[in-house]
């Protein structure tokens, strides 16, 4: 089967490497000069909204998907006129708009943080009267890896925050103290089978994911069940096919859904070695009409992103249970260059391995 | 690091796919029109003894290895003049000659079947006087997948057997009743670290491996230790770097070494999912000077070769814990088209999964 992928980054690279053993071939559409996915298939170098390039992708693919959630929804809709496109294009529309995303969660009974829409400074001030301080002001669109958001602790912070975010529709969210960040990765097949990976604990710094622990240590079973229920609700509501990630906050009052990513997700990379079937293989199984593979964890895993600079490969591989995935990118501050997954049979061994890791 | 590989079959393909995440690039030298490894790197299409092609491989590689043990030893030696070649070329010479192979085992104190060299029919008859009947007559060179051998049960079988084998130096071996066939896969790094995978039980039909069980069920610990000792002895004797496989017979009198393969091996394919680090990754770690990864099994695995015809992919993937690896080959009787590994937490679950597998 020929898989077309919008986006040719590391997620495309790992999708391609996961699909090769199943006999799949890949074409990636990506505007970048150098594209991590190029080692795993052909590349059409063009903007995501180039009609001729989209048509070429459709011609060379049996099924189309994406690995980058800021793909324009109209591009996915154009492809869907002639080809099976999974996940559904409307998942892009929802996930690209923080307000729509929260409204969708809320409509499905999934708890979200208190929030309100705002158009400008006056609207933001009005919103803050109901939301309270501190709060987070975010652009409704184009936010990822911590971009497009500002924390305001006092009314005086509002004007500079809005100036920094630019002239764009906003969402004002209560600043919620949380115990930790979690994510749930789930997959739904064309046959409407659903499988959930164990819930993951995530650690961010400067808005970028640094480390994930899978399964999330000491998670109350009721919370794990709730997270899985939320994922199922979104998958079924959207008649979704493929892998979906939902980021959650664990608070004293339970889980709050923060955002969704309608694609394979950085917090699911551990599944390559740490689960029976990786998120990448399961995404491909789902969109190609194959049965899903088991999502159970094999022992415990820690995934550590390699950001900005590349540590010595030999030192990384010397850590017990270390598996290294490099993305073929030139080092640059803040850039995800690769990741290491440490897999162990228990948490004590995993902690020891993490200590041995030079990251 | 740029890895050059003599041979571009499925073993090269799986080496390439294992090396991509580590940032390695690959060039394969192979005479065939279509080459399973082509998806994982560049291909130089030429015979294994083409000097210009060998020089081109050397130019485009930092380290050279092979995935096919019938590579001419002089080709490996030519490459070794300008590049690091692992395993050592002399491992080819030993493994390509069944007599030399048995003599090497014997010299290291590794038990082998009773055997004698023979040049012709008269010599074979003389050899049979000491070896006894039944016996197996084999060509000394170019034997794999059951080729180049004939069983003789009576003196009258000798002439037709020799006619079938052609005019070539022979080895006459006692026909040993054995309980089962086993193999040991071991790896030695450039730093002289050695790691052994759990011993594997192998099932052949028509001289072709059909199925491997890893770890070999109910293997006496003393036999497992002996197999590992034999592998270490060969690795150290040859100052070997890379993965080595030794096929063994388990008899009432203990283990007998049958043959060695100086490369990644079909009976080690289960390690992709069934061991902490696959034989392919460990071969690459070894030859590139990186530390070895753990070789411990994760649960129990069965590897089933897909031979001749391709079963329905969806049915294969529906078996619990199934992982499918296709080699991109056109189906042909007797041809290895791919393999399935079933991984489970215990033998009962594995047996159930094997029953569900449509192979």
Please explain how this structure is put together.
Two copies of one chain form a homodimer. With 359 residues, chain A is α+β, with helices and mostly antiparallel strands. Chain A folds into three domains: 2-85, Rossmann fold, CATH 3.40.50.20; 114-174, ATP-grasp fold, A domain (Dna Ligase, domain 1); 180-356, D-amino Acid Aminotransferase, Chain A, domain 1, CATH 3.30.470. The first copy, chain A, is built from twelve helices and 18 strands. Chain A has helices at residues 10-19, 51-59, 73-80, 90-95, 98-107, 121-131, 158-165, 221-237, 271-274, 279-287, 313-318, 347-356, and strands at 2-6, 25-30, 42-45, 63-66, 84-85, 115-118, 135-139, 149-152, 170-174, 180-188, 194-196, 200-205, 208-214, 242-251, 254-261, 300-307, 322-326, 336-344. In chain A, a hairpin with a 2-residue loop joins strand 12 (200-205) and strand 13 (208-214). At the A-B interface, helix 11 and strand 17 of A face helix 11 and strand 17 of B.
């Amino acid at each position: 089967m020929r898989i077309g992928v919008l986006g040719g980054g590391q997620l495309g690279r790992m999708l391609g490497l996961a699909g090769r053993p199943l006999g799949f071939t890949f074409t990636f559409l990506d505007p970048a000069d150098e594209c991590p996915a190029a080692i795993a298939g052909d590349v059409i170098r063009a903007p995501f909204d180039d009609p001729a390039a989209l048509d070429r992708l459709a011609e060379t693919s049996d099924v189309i998907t994406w690995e980058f959630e800021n793909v324009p929804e109209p591009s996915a809709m154009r492809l869907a006129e002639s080809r099976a496109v999974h996940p559904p294009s409307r998942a892009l529309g929802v996930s690209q708009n923080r307000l729509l995303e929260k409204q969708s969660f809320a409509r499905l009974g999934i708890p979200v943080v208190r929030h309100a829409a705002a158009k400008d400074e006056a609207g933001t001030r009005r919103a803050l009267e109901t939301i309270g301080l501190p709060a987070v002001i975010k652009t409704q669109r184009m936010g990822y890896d911590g971009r497009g958001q500002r924390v305001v602790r006092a009314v005086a912070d509002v004007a500079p925050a809005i100036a920094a975010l630019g002239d764009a529709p906003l969402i004002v969210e209560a600043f919620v103290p949380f115990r930790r960040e979690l994510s749930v990765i789930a997959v739904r097949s064309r046959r409407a089978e659903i499988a959930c990976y164990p819930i993951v604990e995530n650690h961010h710094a400067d808005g970028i994911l640094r480390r994930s622990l899978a399964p999330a240590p000491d998670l109350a079973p009721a919370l794990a069940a709730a997270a899985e229920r939320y994922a199922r609700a979104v998958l079924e509501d959207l008649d979704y096919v493929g892998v979906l990630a939902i980021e959650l906050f664990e608070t004293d009052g339970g889980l709050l859904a923060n955002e969704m990513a309608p694609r394979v997700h950085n917090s699911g990379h551990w599944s390559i070695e740490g689960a029976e079937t990786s998120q990448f293989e399961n995404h491909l199984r789902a969109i190609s009409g194959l049965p899903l593979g088991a999502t159970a964890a094999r022992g415990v895993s820690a995934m550590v992103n390699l950001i900005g600079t590349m540590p010595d490969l030999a030192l990384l591989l010397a850590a017990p249970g270390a598996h290294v995935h490099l993305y073929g990118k030139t080092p640059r501050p803040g850039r995800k260059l690769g990741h290491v997954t440490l897999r162990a049979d228990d948490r004590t061994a995993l902690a020891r391995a993490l200590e041995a890791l030079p990251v």
